[in-house]
Design a protein that fits this description.
It contains 17 helices and 12 strands. The protein is α/β, with parallel strands linked by helices.
């Protein structure tokens, strides 16, 4: 049986990546830092996935195992003959995972030099490159030669909403997911012989990554931030607000303008994708809280992420991204007290002021864009939502 080692046994790991690996016949080893989660996976050895579409369906994933990240002996055994290694740990954790993987891959290389594919399945542009660079930076010259020849590092674009919805669980590790999913993998970077059901191997991944990051993640965050400011609890409630719906659709249009100019995808295809995204947001079964979707605005408002990237691309193409900038401004007004990163931004605004905070967080240099974000932020703080 083929073996997969997946770092990150959270909802996305179990409900999305783990699900497709299981359906593809892989023996799955989850790796996580949380002892209770690891213990529960090893205790129950299976979990249910509740698929939230027009009705609710249940799938079972069984025969799974888990390893604590500090369990060197068992992690070494799992990685020694793995066919695929995947992650869903958050992009900021990839550096540490890469450092650990370099150690275990050195040990693996001592025993065999079989092909292996390593993929970071994160909400970030070219996340596998980040993981790969961390591994190489901690590798010996001999290991680097093995990595060059036998280890593939395909970038991926992953898309599935996995909310923290309150479901009636049969085990504590059951998870709920939306019905829709997409997993695109960079074909030319694959070194091993794997077949993951439901994924698509593509020649050029960048259009898929940017389409998803801008049109789904960017509009998702904007819906969350505006929904929070208007007092909505759930995404499906916020997107039914006519004002929010209009801003989000116009944001998608602005982002599509830049995407089409860069990748020649076709405005009709981008409109079809955008409309499907809005319909996904309207799914009442997801009960996806705006504070979950909006969490960590420091990352979501950063240069290269879901809002600043499409804003810059559209601006460079000749279109002023008024609605994307509105989403960015709403992110700076997101002052949810239980979100440490949101509070970090609020403290910066109190200390440095909104203009300097915008510059620091977004990395923007374009004065006209910064000025517009500041103006829109002040409008939002005064209670005005267009």
């Amino acid at each position: 049986m083929k073996k997969a080692v997946h770092f990150g046994a959270g909802n996305i790991g179990r409900g999305f990546i783990g699900s497709l690996l299981y359906k593809s016949g892989y023996d799955i080893y989850f790796v996580d830092v949380f002892k209770e989660l690891v213990d529960n996976i090893n205790k129950f050895k299976s979990y249910n996935i509740f698929i939230l579409g027009n009705d609710i369906k249940k799938e079972v994933v069984d025969g799974v195992k888990a390893i604590h990240i500090d369990d060197e002996e068992n992690l070494l055994k799992a990685i020694a003959d793995a066919d695929v290694i995947t992650t869903s740990v958050g992009v900021n954790n990839l550096y540490g995972i890469g450092e650990k993987l370099a150690y275990y891959l050195e040990r693996r290389f001592e025993k065999n030099d079989l092909p292996l594919d390593i993929m970071a399945c994160e909400n970030a542009l070219f996340a596998t490159n980040i993981l790969r660079d961390s591994i190489y930076n901690n590798s010996s010259e001999n290991l680097k030669a093995y990595l060059d020849e036998k280890v593939g590092f395909p970038n991926t674009a992953v898309d599935r909403i996995v909310p923290n919805v309150d479901i009636e669980k049969e085990t504590p590790i059951d998870v709920a997911v939306e019905e829709f999913f997409e997993w695109d993998i960079e074909k030319d970077a694959v070194k091993g012989d794997f077949d993951i059901k439901g994924c698509e191997l593509v020649d050029d991944l960048e259009p898929y990554i940017e389409r998803k990051l801008f049109l789904l993640n960017g509009s998702h965050a904007t819906t969350a931030y505006l929904g929070y400011l208007k007092g909505y609890k759930y995404i499906h409630e916020a997107i039914l607000d006519d004002t929010i719906d209009k801003i989000v659709r116009n944001l998608q249009l602005e982002a599509s303008f830049g995407l089409n100019n860069k990748h020649k995808i076709g405005m009709d295809k981008l409109k079809e994708y955008s409309d499907k995204v809005i319909e996904r947001f309207k799914n009442p079964h997801l009960k996806d809280e705006v504070v979950r979707v909006g969490r960590d605005p420091v990352r979501k408002l950063s240069n290269g992420d879901r809002l600043v990237s499409p804003a810059k691309l559209s601006f460079e193409t000749g279109l002023m991204p008024e609605n994307i900038l509105y989403g960015i401004a709403a992110g700076f007004a997101f002052d949810y007290k239980d979100d440490p990163k949101a509070m970090e931004i609020q403290e910066s605004i109190s200390t440095l002021g909104i203009e300097e905070t915008v510059k620091k967080v977004t990395g923007l240099n374009e004065t006209i864009l910064i000025d517009k974000i500041v103006k829109k932020y002040k409008e939002l703080k005064s209670g005005k939502i267009k």
